[in-house]
Amino acid sequence: MVKKFCLMALEESLISTSPVVSSEMTQQSENGPSQLSPKKRYLSIDLFRGLAIVGMVFVNTLTVFTTTPWWSKHAADFGLTYVDLIAPFFIFAIALTYKLSFSRAVQKEGFLKAYVRFLRRYAALLGFGFLGALIIEPTGITFDWGVLQAIGFAGILTLFFIILPCFYRFAISVVLLLLYQFLLGLTVSIDGILVTIGDLAFTSSHGGIIGGVGYGLMMLLSTA
Length: 224
What we know:
There is one protein chain. By secondary structure, the chain is mainly alpha-helical. The protein has helices at about 1-15, 45-60, 85-95, 100-110, 110-130, 145-160, 165-185, 195-200, 210-224; strands at about 30, 30-35, 135, 140, 185-190, 195. The chain contains nine helices and six strands. Helix 1 runs antiparallel to helix 5 (about 110-130), helix 5 (about 110-130) packs antiparallel against helix 6 (about 145-160) and helix 6 packs across helix 9 (about 210-224). Mean pLDDT is about 80; it is low at about 1-10 and about 20-35.
């Protein structure tokens, strides 16, 4: 049931962050043409997003097998494999139409309703991700941080800046990414043990909230 909800939420996010499918031109009314522009679908973006989804299903399936080679797994610590690129590709695909979708929603519903709708959608992805990663054991309840949480967190973070012009989104994302990279190298004390903030990100799948900030900044940069 949880997986079904997760897939439904992910599908809703895909539909809503793409231009609506329609070949009809703007409808004419008695008072003149509507202000909404013609609706258009970008096949290249749809194909790219679809391949990213297939890639996510494929690499997650490989985790079931014990004979999966190292190059078909996430890099253990430092390094990069093609598996590490799947989720960022999907984040990039969503970001390509994020601004366009939000602008159309604002034009149709107004800023407040559009903002709440996007916030609710990505919060749902975040929540469904936690439900899907919920682990109940005799010792207690634990959560993991997976790709749905990363997408939801990234979408919410991007929403705070999406109304800004393209140049400002680009500049802010670059500055914040540089600051983010610097902060990853800072050392903190955890129970008397010195670790870097980057080391803390390795304790959770997809980097936890620390990694989620990176996904969010990557999505923000991709909207520019």
